[in-house]
Design a protein that fits this description.
about 550 residues, three-stranded antiparallel sheet, mainly alpha, single chain, 22 helices
Length: about 550
């Protein structure tokens, strides 16, 4: 075989070289250059071996049935993976192996239509929605960014808190913000990118072509939020973002055009992108991100395939072996076919199999001990890609592993949720807060948010935590670090203490006359002299008050 292969390769190479040398000088359209025959012969002698090796790569399809044997090893030319392992055979160093490269290339962009189809599957749908629900389930608290409690009176604090509470209620009840965010986050995972457009009366099509300006929001102008699938948004660029790599927005769409031709500047849109890709791949992804559905669909298929094979394996786990003479079988196949059909019909546990005393029948049983581990192993790969603990994704109790309680996985999951809250949802909520404040309250005050903890502690965990706090507070009291009034105030401020319903210590605010007197004294006296001054008993109260106000100013 080896001799025939070498001879065939030699003849092929010689014929290729003769064709190369026999091209006429006038036949320029053939693509060959005419060279001197003596130079060609020298080139032939010098590169004949390497040419032979390189041709193995190009003609491998012609030798699918041939094998190359060397030092006891066989290389099948119908396997490019095997062929390329031997660089001496191919002469191609640094080239990707076809089989390996094909494996990774299939993870490329699959299209939004296919993503939509995949999202119909229960497991992919759950993986794309569970993390979003967990991020928003416990809600968030609105806070004024530019206002501090220390600068406000009790009346101002109550008014500010009332405004923030109304803001939250309006967003949830009137504009359904939570539902819109869940839908937007779902598209974010399914398609890799998602869009939200606040609809504001007075900001029309022409205004949307220009950068977003919140000063155009009037009272009552906010109408709601439109969540848009990326399928309906066509990216557009200006000259700088398309051609200048030094531009901070290089290869980022400056505008988006809807299906009906409306042009929208990117600043009007709230855009979420999941897992950015390199610039060279952005056009294939329509300048979006890698979707979760694209990442897990193959693992989901393998998991479901394993689960579906399990019932079939239970029905066919016993293989009957009927020993016959193969000569008789081929002479009368109809007889044995009917016999096989009879055995199959009576195969279940309730059937009775009649055999002749001379028949030799055996049985092979397939072990099912590791079947559950194989199936769950595939499903756990899905949960690993989705970064959702398997016991949460499938609502099962954690079993085995390094952390059978699941605490380590839940801790990591909560960290991922915090990242998702700050990177995806917080900018969107901040934008809506700005719009609602201007539209509903005619206020330009900046409102930020603080998400509530994603994990809800149990009653036992709360009781244990409060017990630890009480022990620490007792130590502080015994060592005169805090007073009983301060300890009581701590209980009132702690919402999980169980005593937040108690009234706190009311702070006596100085009157206007006292404030004016204090300010006058501070203007006349130097700061250091006031702190070191030893006044009379009647002035002690004033001096202490001045010092307390000085400390507050220093903290600012």
């Amino acid at each position: 075989m080896l001799g025939k292969l070498k001879q065939k390769l030699t003849n092929f190479v010689d014929s290729r070289i003769q064709n190369y040398l026999s091209k006429d000088n006038n036949k320029e359209d053939t693509g060959y250059n005419v060279i001197d025959e003596s130079m060609a012969e020298a080139e032939n002698k010098r590169n004949k071996n390497s040419l032979t090796k390189n041709l193995l790569y190009s003609i491998q399809k012609d030798f699918n049935s041939l094998k190359y044997t060397k030092e006891g090893k066989e290389y099948a030319f119908d396997s490019m993976d095997t062929c390329l392992k031997n660089n001496k055979m191919t002469g191609l160093t640094g080239s990707p192996k076809d089989i390996v490269f094909t494996f990774f290339a299939k993870f490329g962009y699959i299209g939004w239509q296919i993503c939509s189809v995949l999202a119909q599957h229960w497991l992919i749908s759950n993986a794309c929605s569970i993390s979003n629900k967990d991020c928003l389930r416990n809600g968030w608290n609105n806070i004024f960014v530019d206002k501090k409690d220390i600068d406000m009176t009790e009346e101002e604090k109550e008014k500010a808190q009332e405004t923030l509470s109304k803001l939250f209620d309006i967003e949830q009840q009137k504009y359904k913000l939570n539902d819109k965010l869940l839908k937007w986050g779902y598209y974010y995972n399914v398609f890799g990118t998602a869009f939200m457009l606040p609809i504001i009366d007075g900001i029309g099509d022409k205004e949307r072509e220009k950068p977003y300006n919140p000063d155009g929001i009037r009272k009552g102008s906010f109408k709601g939020i439109s969540v848009i699938e990326p399928y309906w948004m066509i990216p557009e660029f200006d000259l700088e973002t398309m051609t200048d790599p030094t531009n901070i927005n290089f290869f980022e769409p400056e505008f988006y055009r809807t299906a009906n031709g409306k042009k929208i500047h990117k600043s009007h849109l709230i855009i979420g992108r999941r897992k950015f890709v390199s610039d060279i791949l952005k056009p294939s992804y329509y300048y979006g991100g890698i979707s979760l559905a694209q990442e897990i669909y193959e693992r989901v298929y393998a998991s479901e395939k394993c689960a579906n094979e399990a019932p079939l394996l239970l029905l066919t786990k016993r293989l009957n072996v009927y020993k016959v003479k193969l000569k008789d079988f081929f002479l009368n196949p109809t007889k044995y076919k009917e016999l096989a059909e009879t055995l199959t019909t009576m195969r279940d546990n309730q059937g009775i199999l009649f055999t002749d005393h001379e028949d030799d029948i055996g049985q092979i049983d397939t072990g099912l001990g590791d079947l559950e581990q194989v199936i769950m192993g595939q499903y756990q790969l899905v949960s690993a890609i989705a970064r959702i603990p398997a016991d949460k994704l499938f609502e099962t109790n954690p079993t085995g592993g390094l952390s059978a309680s699941g605490d380590y996985n839940i801790k990591n999951y909560n960290q991922d949720l915090n990242t998702l809250q700050n990177d995806l949802f917080k900018p969107a909520i901040d934008r809506i807060n700005e719009i609602v404040m201007r539209s509903e309250f005619e206020s330009k005050d900046r409102v930020g948010i603080v998400f509530n903890p994603t994990d809800n502690p149990t009653e036992k965990e709360i009781a244990d935590l409060n017990n630890q706090k009480a022990q620490a507070m007792q130590i502080y009291l015994q060592n005169n670090i805090i007073t009983t009034e301060e300890a009581r105030q701590k209980l009132v401020n702690d919402k999980m203490s169980g005593y937040s319903f108690l009234k706190g210590i009311e702070k006596e605010e100085p009157t206007k006359e006292e404030k004016a007197e204090i300010e006058e004294m501070m203007k006349k006296a130097d700061k250091d002299e006031i702190e070191d001054k030893e006044g009379k008993d009647e002035d002690d109260t004033k001096l202490i008050t001045i010092k307390s106000y000085k400390r507050q100013r220093r903290k600012k």
